């Protein structure tokens, strides 16, 4: 049986990178044909993670995969996001057969509501979702990632967790894990922090980059806007000049 073509949801962070890595390690089962991500043109960055588009494109070059950017407005409500995703699915349907895929892979680990949301919105579209890292214990997976050579910069920390400005811009490494307060998921699966991968076994070569300016921004404490706002800290990522 021919391997299943797949497109990987690419946040630029460690979880999506590891999901892609796992699929590529099963060439008899999966044929990874590209990555896709939402970008916010207003900021010229990947949505949520805040990774600059220049770094995103450097990742795609080192993955040797087509990159499909899905522009969304700022601010973006659920209806706008879902409309953008429907347009993306239409775009994939029109691709040449050698690039097309009806299987979308996501790097979600254990949040049932997120998985259910993804699966529900793909019902009846002809597309299906797979979750390569689903259910993997996050403490051991975090250590496995680091031991494999994954190097990632913490691009933002959220008021959802008890992380302050000092955690933004750090390397995702054993020292970072050791410093996490009790109750913080070591992979930030509850939204406590996000990362951008600049090296690892899924990239053909390291991306020369370092942490830039760290900025505080007021964001809603919850998706429904309840509880007011709090400060989220964002670390820019700058590409080093050759």
Q: How would you describe this protein?
A:
Helix 4 links the parallel strand 5 and strand 6. The protein is globular. Strands 1, 2, 3, 4, 5 and 6 form a six-stranded mixed sheet that branches. The model has no long low-confidence stretch (mean pLDDT 95). The protein has two domains: 127 residues, 3-Layer(aba) Sandwich (Rossmann fold), CATH 3.40.50.620; 94 residues, no CATH class. 27% of the residues lie in helices and 28% in strands. The longest helix is centred in the middle third of the chain and has 16 residues. It contains six helices and ten strands. It starts with a strand and ends with a strand. The chain is of the alpha/beta class and 242 residues long.
Q: Could you list some keywords that capture this structure?
A:
242 residues, alpha/beta, Rossmann fold, 2 domains, 6-stranded mixed β-sheet, 4-stranded antiparallel β-sheet, 10 strands, globular
Brief sketch in words of this structure:
27% of the residues lie in helices and 28% in strands. By secondary structure, it is an alpha/beta fold.
Using the coordinates shown, work out and report the CATH topology of the largest domain: Rossmann fold
- Over all CA atoms, what is the radius of gyration? 17 Å
Residue share in β-strands: 25-35%
Overall domain count: 2
SSE run: EHEEHEHEHEHEHEEE
Number of H- or I-type helical stretches? 6
**Unreliable segments of 5+ consecutive residues:** none
CATH homologous superfamily classification of the largest domain:
HUPs
Structural class: alpha/beta
CATH architecture of the largest domain: 3-Layer(aba) Sandwich
Shape: globular
Count of distinct strands = 10
CATH class of the largest domain: Alpha Beta
Largest sheet: 6 strands, mixed
